[in-house]
Amino acid sequence: MYTEQVITRMGELKNAGALRGANARGVVGDMHEGAIIRLALKIDDKGMIQDAKFRTFGCVPAIVGSDVLCDLIRKKSVIHARALTPASILVELGGMPESRASCAIAPLQALDIAIKNWEKAK
């Protein structure tokens, strides 16, 4: 059902956990729908994402999608991060069964919320 990339990533999560000094946070989902995704970012004054971590509770696609997202946005600008598409995540995962793809790309919603919260606080 899952690609080798998904299986490998699930066994070697690099970005799970708390992020001290985070100044942007985004949360989406609820357990009744299958997952809660919490994304924490450190964004500098120039709009560069210095670090990203996640805490995702739920299905494998949501967890590995969160991990991939953190890799894709770290050391990138907020503008670059906003330009990411669902395909950006799915390609890194080597694809995803159609019935599970929405879970894998849900972290993009948490990213959008985190960036909007950072902009409000700025």
Layout of SSEs?
Elements: H1 4-11, E1 24-30, E2 35-43, E3 48-58, H2 60-73, E4 76-77, H3 78-82, H4 86-92, H5 101-105, H6 107-121
Antiparallel strand pairs: 1-2, 2-3, 3-4
Helix pairs in contact: 2-4
Describe the structure.
The protein is of the alpha+beta class and 122 residues long. The chain has one domain: Sufe protein. Chain: A. 44% of the residues lie in helices and 24% in strands. The protein contains six helices and four strands; from the N terminus they run αβββαβαααα. The protein has a four-stranded antiparallel sheet with strand order 1-2-3-4. The protein is globular, with a radius of gyration of 13 Å. The termini are far apart.
Write down the overall geometry.
globular
Q: What number is the mean pLDDT?
A: 95
Give start-end ranges of low-pLDDT stretches: none
CATH class: Alpha Beta
User: Based on the structure given, which CATH architecture is correct?
Assistant: Alpha-Beta Complex
Please state roughly what percent of the residues sit in beta strands, choosing from under 5%, 5-15%, 15-25%, 25-35%, 35-45% or over 45%.
15-25%
Alpha carbon gap, first and last residue: 43 Å
Q: Which structural class best describes the helix and strand composition?
A: alpha+beta
